[in-house]
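So, can you check what follows?
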Amino acid sequence: MSSLHQRAAVSSNGIEPPLSQAVGYVIVLVVGLLIAFGMVFLTRLLKRTVGEDNAKTEMFMTANRSVRTGLTASAVVSSWLWSTAMLGSSIVGYTNGVSGPFWFAAGCSPMIVFFALLGISCKRKIPEAHTLLEIVRIRYGTTAHFVYMFLCLVNNIIACANMLLGASAVITAMTGIHIIAATFLLPVGVALYTFVGGIKATFLTDYMHTFTILIVLCYFTAKAFSIDEIGSIQHLYDLLKAAGQQHPVSGNHDGSYLTMTSKGGIEFGIIHILANFGLVIMDTSFFIKAFSAAPSSVVPGYVVGGIAYFAIPWAIGTLASSICLGLETTSPIFPTYPRRLSTTEVGSGLILPYAFITVAGKGGAGAIAVITFMAVTSTLSAQVIAVSSIISFDIYRTYIRPGATDADVIRWSHYGVIFFALFAAAFSTMLHYVGIDLSWTLYMLGVLTCPGIFPTTFTILWRKQSRVAAIVAPLLGMATGLGVWIGTAHAFSGEISVASTGAVLPCVYGTAASALSPIIYSVIITIVKPENYDWADFKKEKLAFEVEHSTTDIVQSVDTELADSASSVQKSQTLKRWARIAAYWSIATFLGHWVLWPLPMYASHYIFEKGFYVAWLVIGFIWLWITLFIVGFYPIIDGRDQIWAVLKAVRSSRKTAEPDSSANSATVVEVRQDEK
């Protein structure tokens, strides 16, 4: 990040947009509305055929807790397939070389898998919950409820800003539409289909968007080597090696882009894994999706989805950054030739778009605009439904109208969808006008998202954490993190500015302080006055509304192990077994992706040889194509019963309608004959 601010920019205006403004408005408005209306139609079809009524709160917010493993895994991948995932991994690849995309991926998968443990623990201890904040309120009371509400809303706001800043910059660069217009139009379709369809619409839209994005990305991995300027992975290696010799990277071994021994890379890795633990654990949308999944689908869905996701930032970030670094000053087909990318272009996340344009021209520009739009709308929908749930359940139903009916809560959920879509766009606009871009938010967001990591985890897993510790620890942690972040920024640069606070080291120290200090605060406060919470108290409060199971209810079809068991003890044992499996997978994923694989390579000072680089990319591509299968086809295979039930119901309704229409025709003929 420091190199981004130190490098002199030849131009900050970017390239001439390859597409017209009309194309931009079609993508952000027309395509968005078409997808929204498609989701509205699908929602109504599911209601008519299998009884999934989104006018009921349990269906709107938790899909009757019946989502299967395939769709859960797809939704998990989609939840992390931010526009930032594709754009940000390319930024750190361009800045640090091959280590950057790897650390980006390694900073995501371990906590996604770890969330399987939190999700199944919630399923076991408080199965009727809708949000994380309900759990906090029941265990610690009103004050803690407000504290964690603040932490979760900050998390949602900074996450949305991160998405919108990157996506609107890319769509503006590709089409020339005004960046503020893009910022405000992107959430329109999201608000519409989330307003009507709730969490199930989010799941289904996530599936379609993510499937489409992965098809385009997999095509990109093949198309890239069909142009003469690249030709093969071996030639791309030669180009990347030459780029390292021409402009070596400070902090990398021998200045090479082809090494995991990168100071900037590992510093980003530390920031990213801590920040993403905060983004997952303090994001109520992850809890909603866990509550929406069937008990037997939570752990396999999150484990499969977390491991599958790893390939996206790793493979795409490595390929896109290699293309840009290799061709930007050597090939006339590169958009900025003969100059290097400017600081503004890098900070706006334009590495991946420029790689797409290089490989596929205007078609590539159109493709990157569409998949960026799909990525940001898909992840925005999860954030919108999360904030909507806080407004409807944790504010309205808890403090404004405790006796709220099903219809009341749904109405306030709708208010929440509209409010947060507008607020997110307005907040992102404010950040843009004060000079903050995707790169800045990518590095500093952990300072704000991390304070609640361990107090929240302890709330779910550690019965001894006291009420005072749960309230005070995250607030002190945030104060500590902000103080360290701003203090080190001033110490290193002599000023407090966007550039100084976005540099690597202040963000590393601030994020680490924000994430780790609450452990000390919580443990010390708890030792002074420990508590011993009885998990059974969670089940004393009635949280769920009446559930109307659909004709293909997952409880009957998938969770037979749980549903057929008459004994609650047996159910509890089954969920405990899933929790142990989740814990083992969490440890294995962290050790594999963050310790055993990358750290020895960092210590070895190894510079990739041509054969190793080829294997590195090929494995990433294969992993990416497997992810395409998991996201695209596994939900269809896993949900074939419900798909068949819908098709059968549609066919039956048509058969029923045919005799009626023929009878009506016969009646008309008889009447006309009588008239004659």
Notes: Residues 2-463+533-636 form a domain with the Sodium/glucose cotransporter fold (CATH 1.20.1730). The chain has one domain: 2-463+533-636. The radius of gyration is 26 Å.
